[in-house]
Amino acid sequence: MRKLLARELRLSLRHGTDSLAAILFFLVAGALFPLAIGPAPETLARIAPGIVWVCALLAALLPLDRLFGADAEDGSLDHLLLSGLPPAAIALGKAAAHWLTTGLPLLLAAIPMAIMLRLPDEALPALLLGLIPGTAFLSLIGTTGAALVLGARRGGVLLPLLVLPMAVPALIFGVAAADAAALGLAARPHLLLLSALCAAALPLCPLAAGAALRSAAE
Amino acid sequence: MSTSPAISPASGRSLHRFANPGRFLRLSARVLPFLAVPALLLTLGGLAWGLFVAPADYQQGDAMRIIYIHVPAAWLASGGYLGLAICALLSLVWRHPLADLAAVEIGPVGAAFTALCLATGSLWGKPMWGAWWVWDARLTSVLVLFFLYLGHIALVRAFDEPERGYRAGAILALVGVVNLPIIKFSVDWWNTLHQPSTLTVTGAPSMHVDMLWPLLTCILGFSLGFAAVVTARLRAAVMERRIRGLLLAQAQGI
Fold first, then answer.
1. Chain A residues lying within 8 Å of B167, measured CB to CB
2. What angle is formed at CA A163 by the lines to CA A24 and CA A108, rounded to 5 degrees?
3. What count of other Cβ atoms lies within 10 Å of the Cβ of residue B155?
4. Alpha-carbon gap, residue A85 to A76, rounded angstroms
5. Contacts of B155 in chain A (CB under 8 A)
6. Is B158 close to A212, i.e. CB distance below 8 A?
7. What's chain B's average pLDDT?
């Protein structure tokens, strides 16, 4: 499992453009909002958490398409499944790699983006604290979706259709936490709910993704 | 894959008795009229009773009569998804061939009832809340349910081998079940604009008996109609499969 993770990280390091593309997409998409809505600071500050969250959600979807696709094409997915690791562990490893290569950089990129969008300073910690379990939840749900559409026609189009509705709870609580902090209210309950979501997805999503991987390899 | 020893062979046999497509076709041909005719009578009767005979609400007036369509549609939207999930479980655990087909056929019907529920809800919301749509917890969770149906419909049809589509769809259906309790309890957990449940299993219903009876009639009629449509679609799917098999055999024979 550790070797799988190391392999994934090495691969993504050598093909650095993949996660870089997601980050650039995140920044560019976020920069469109001030241009589209107008640069009025109070409007921007009000909608900044929502923009950061939605852009992070969409950016995290980008690398999912290739998460299992490349491995299925060159046969290494079959090798992984034959290696003795349970399919759920493979899915968990993939999700962890996705989070480390996409979720974590997104978290870092969210800081300049939030500042550029005039997010109030007191809301920034709540936004970032919410993005930690939030992006992890997205990685888990996204891995499940990627495993489900493996081998489907138009899988790339289907993937957002499956993943985005599932990601709605994370979006709601994540934005609510940042909004509460901006208004001077307690962000803690929202963050706890978000962490609970992530904790529930941690065992369930790899199981579902593993079952999907096994049926894809049959 | 190993089978669980906890399941006795007898239960497996009774489960698979209806897996035989021929037996299913014979049985469903006999059952279908008993579903379809009462469904039509009860739905029309219940709607006429609710729309013309039952009293109007003291606060909402005649607008409240849309409840006779909205509540049955909402019940079938979530009940249909539960049926979908049960089919998914049967197909994943016991590899029941009819459950695969049933899941494929329930999807569009359930999605249609969810759309009906959302549409009637927004028609009801306009005069009562002053807006076609509000983003409260009940409405949002039903919208997510609608997207889940659409995702399931798209996913099971997206594969070249149907078997693969059945598996993927079943896993998705089971993952989506988490949404059902959220829909059910959304009006209790959050302070929503949507009113709390009128009907509960344990408590007394919070509506007058003159409105309750037509509503229950409608719910029964809609449910029978749902079952009839799904059975008819399932029969059509089984026959389609047979025709495809015959055509393939014919093509190979030449």
1. 211-212, 215
2. 30
3. 26
4. 13
5. 148-149, 152, 158, 162
6. no
7. 83
Q: Please give the average per-residue pLDDT across A184-198, as a whole number.
A: 87
Provide the whole-model pTM. 0.84
- Give the minimum alpha-carbon distance from B130 to chain A in angstroms, rounded to a whole number: 24
Chain B residues within 8 A of A158 when measuring between CB atoms: 151, 154-155, 158
Preferred mutation among A166, A168, A175, A213 to probe B, highest tally of B CBs within 10 A: A166
Tokens of B118: 């959302």
CA distances from B142 to A153, A193, B74, B111, B115 (A): 28, 20, 9, 11, 9
Q: DSSP labels for B25-90?
A: HHHHHHHHHHHHHHHHHHHHHHHHIIIIISPPBTTTBGGGGGHHHHHHHHHHHHHHHHHHHHHHHH
Considering CB atoms only, which of B158, B176, B182 is closest to A158?
Answer: B158
| ipTM of this complex prediction, to 2 decimal places | 0.81
| Cβ neighbour number for residue B172 with a 10 Å cutoff | 25
Residues 6+ apart with CB under 8 A from A102: A19, A22, A59, A60, A62, A63, A135, A139
The residue written with tokens 């690791």 in the block is A85
Kindly identify which residue of chain A lies nearest to residue B161, measuring between CA atoms.
Answer: A152
Q: Where are the domains of chain B?
A: 31-54+64-191+210-248
Q: Which residues of B are less than 8 Å from A211 in CB distance?
A: 92, 167, 171
| Cβ–Cβ gap A158/B147 under 8 Å | no
Which residue on chain B is closest to A144 by alpha carbon?
A: B172
For residue A11, what are its two tokens? 């691969």
Give B141's DSSP letter: H
Contact B172 A162 (CB under 8 A): yes
Is the model's pLDDT at B202 over the cut of 70? no
Residue whose entry in the numeric block shows the structure tokens 């959302």: B118
Tell me whether residues B175 and A212 touch, CB distance under 8 A.
Answer: no
Least CB–CB distance from B167: residue in A153, A154, A215: A215
Q: Which CATH fold would you assign to the domain B31-54+64-191+210-248? A: Four Helix Bundle (Hemerythrin (Met), subunit A) (1.20.120)
A103-107, A124-128, B5-9, B82-86, range with the lowest pLDDT: B5-9
Residue from B198, B237, B243 nearest B75 by CA: B198
Q: Where are the alpha helices (DSSP H) in chain B?
A: 9-16, 21-48, 67-94, 97-129, 137-156, 162-176, 179-189, 209-253
Structure-model confidence comparison of residues B85 and B132, the more confident one:
B85
